[in-house]
Each structure stands twice: as structure tokens, then as C-alpha cells.
From TrEMBL:
Keywords: Membrane, Transmembrane, Transmembrane helix
Pfam families assigned to the protein according to its UniProt record, in alphabetical order: Flp_Fap
Full protein name: Flp/Fap pilin component
Bilayer-crossing regions: 20-42
Length: 54
């Protein structure tokens, strides 16, 4: 049992995939946040220009 536990701790093949998954998740959260802010800014500009034109 001790040998199996030591082998499991030393295993690194799955950790690389997990790290790439975490990086991808972090990047997707950042992209969604930026795009949401850009969309809100554009809608505020549109509303401001519409009210200025009246």
C-alpha cells in the first residue's frame, strides 16, 4: 500500500492536463469579464448619444 501511495504522489502525467484546464478556465473567465464590460460601455455610449441627439 505504501508503494502505491508513493507512486501516486510521484505521478505527474495527469497534473499537466489539470494545470492546462485551470489556465483555460482562468482565461475564459477573464475574456467573459472583459467582453461584458465592453458591452456595458457600448450600451452606455449608445444611450448617451441617443439622449444627446434629442
Amino acid at each position: 500500500m505504501k508503494v502505491l501511495l508513493q507512486r501516486f504522489v510521484k505521478e505527474e502525467h495527469g497534473s499537466t492536463a489539470l494545470e492546462y484546464g485551470l489556465i483555460a478556465a482562468g482565461l475564459s473567465i477573464a475574456i467573459v469579464t472583459v467582453l461584458t464590460q465592453v458591452g456595458l460601455t457600448l450600451s452606455r455610449l449608445k444611450a448617451a448619444s441617443a439622449s444627446a441627439g434629442n
